UniProtKB/TrEMBL annotation:
GO terms for molecular function: gluconate transmembrane transporter activity. The chain crosses the membrane at residues 6-22, 27-45, 121-146, 158-176, 196-218, 253-274, 286-316, 328-351, 363-385, 456-478. This is Gluconate permease. Keywords: Cell membrane, Membrane, Transmembrane, Transmembrane helix, Transport. It comes from Persicitalea jodogahamensis. It is a multi-pass membrane protein.
Amino acid sequence: MTDPLFILSVGVLIVVGGIIGLKLHPFLALILGALVVAFMTPALAVEQYALDKGTAPAAALALSQKGIGERIATEFGNTCAKIGILIAMAAIIGKCLLESGAAERIIRSILRLTGIGKAPIAFLTSSFFLGIPVFFDTVIFLMMPLVKAMALRLGKNYLLLVMCIMAGAAMANSLVPPAPGPLFLIGEMHIPIGMMMIAGVIVGLFTITAGYFFSVWVNGKMPIEIRDSLDAPLKDIRLIAAREDRELPPLGLSLLPVLIPLGFICADTAIGALSKGGAPWGDSALATAVVAFIEFFGDKNIALISGGFAALLVLASQRKTSKAEFSTFVQAALLSGGGIILITAAGGAFGGMLQQTGISTRIAGLTAGYQMALIPLAFLIAAVVRTAQGSATVALITASGILSGMATQGNLEFHPVYLGLAIGCGSKIVPWMNDSGFWIVCKLSNLTEKEALKTISPLLVVMGITGLAVILVGAKLFPLV
C-alpha cells in the first residue's frame, strides 16, 4: 500500500478517471489526486525524499511532520511562484495583441514572407529557436495569440498550428542549453556546453520535422476549429481580421510586446553564459550598470511585466478608451488567466506529492540492474520518471544523476553527449495531467483534456522516439571519441 508505484497508480486513476470519467473540473480532480497521494505517502518516504534532494536532516524531518494540507499548499504555492505572474501578464499581452490588431499585423507580415502554405513551418521553427533561450511556458504564452489570429486568417489548421508551437518549444527546452534541464545535465555528465548546443539543435531539427508530419496527419484525421474564449472571442478576432492595413498598428510597434521580454531574457542569458567564463567587462562602471539593468529586466517575471505594459500602450495607441473601460479590459484578461493559474498550480501540487512518494528513487532502483545498451537505458529512465511525476526537468536531473558515473567512465564507445541527448528525448514522454505544461497548452488553446491526450501527448512520444533513433544512428556513425 505504501509502494510508490501503487500510490502512483491510484493517483493516475483518480485524476484521469475524475476528469474524463466523472467530468470533474480539472482543478478539483488534481487537488483530490494530490490529497489522496499525500495521505497514502508515509512520513519516512517524505523525509527520505527531502534528504535525497540535499535538504538538511532537521529540515527533512520537519517536512515529513507537516500536515497533508500544508504540504499540498506549499507545492501549490511553489508552482504559482513559477508561473503565476507569467500567466497573468501573458493573458494581458495576448488580449492586447488581439484587440489592438497587433497580432493581425504580425500574421499578415508572416504570410507575406512565407506564403500561406508554409505558415505552420514558420511557427514550428520560430518556437524551436525561441525555446532555446526562453522558457517553454513563455514561448507558448507569446505564440498562442498569433496562432489564434493565424488560424482565423487561414480558416483552417488551428490544431496544426497549436501542435507546431508545442513541438518546437518542447524539444528545445530539453535538448539545448541554456534551458535549465540541459544546463544541469551537462554539468552532471561533464559534457561541453558548445557540443551539447550543436548536437541538441541537430537532433531537435530531426525531432520537430517528425513532429510536423505527425501534426499534419493528426490535423487531417481530427481537425479542431478555434473556439470562443473569454479572452479572445471569435467575433472580435474576425472584426480585426477584416480591417484594412492602414487601420492596424505598424509592424515594429506590434512586435514590441513580444520583442521586449524576448530581448531582455536573451540578453540576460548571454550575460549569464559570459559571466561563467569571467566577466569580460572588467571594472567598467558603465558596463556594470548596463549588466545590472539587463539582469533586472531579464528576470522572466519582470520581462513579461514589461511586455504587458508595452502591450497596453500598443492597445491605448489604437483604441481611445476611458480609464473605466481599460480597467474592465484588464479584468477580463486576468479572469481567463486566473483559471489557468489555478489548474496549473493544482497540477504542480499533484506532481509534487508524487515526487514525495520517492517515485524517482524507486524507478532508479528498478532500472539499475538492466543489462542493456546505455543509450536506450538513459532514454527509458528519463521517460519513466517524466511519465510518473510530470516534470521534464526533474526527469533530466534524475536520469543524469543515475547515469553520470557511466558517462564519465573511459571505456564508452561514444561521446557522453549522446547519453545526454537520449535523456533529453526521453524526458518528453509522456505528458499528461500531472504536467503543468500540459495544462498551460490545453487551457490556452481551449482544447479539451481528451483532445490534448489524443494530440499533444502522442506528438511528444513520436518526437522522443524519433530523437532516440537519430541518436542511436549518430552514436554508431559519428562516435566522436
